[in-house]
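cache lookup: miss for this entity combination. No prior model stored, computing from scratch. Input as submitted by user K.M.:
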Amino acid sequence: MDATLRQRIDELVGSSPVFVFMKGTKLMPQCGFSNNVVQILHATGVPFETFDVLSDMEIRQGIKDYSEWPTIPQVYVNGEFIGGSDILIEMYNNGELKEKLTVALAS
Amino acid sequence: MVQPDEVMAAIRRALPDAAVEVEDLTGGGDHLQVKVVSQAFAGLNRVKQHQLVYGALRSELASEAIHALAVQTSLPS
């Protein structure tokens, strides 16, 4: 992928310990899967930032190449891609998410 | 849209030992849920497990023939 685009995505991912690429915004998610992720992160109480891929076609496609993951939403913790909606739900239910976020925000 | 048996066949081409269940969540053929059980997932984290399944369905996802795909992966018990 294009180096400038990769750098843009690197900067977004690095802009917050918890960063989400989603369809729509925190207040108005435009897709049920994106909404799941927002609700779960709200439930954990951690601060997080989001980017609306519907506002930027280059990022919308680029983020899929960046993570080699074909779907949106995508959740990054300290720069590491941890999964989409299904994985977040599973990690929330088994307690792994809370543990990961606690460690991430402490560092 | 794609037929559930095409999805199953594509996954089994990539993961020949896999037990695959496909559910069409809306009846429209483009919101699918798949459950895949395969020994190929051993030692992989969940992202990597799901990437194997996505990889098998790359063209269907890229063309948006499948719009939404819920994935559950596990090892044979």
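stored under new cache key. The domain at 3-106 of chain A is CATH 3.40.30.10 (Glutaredoxin).
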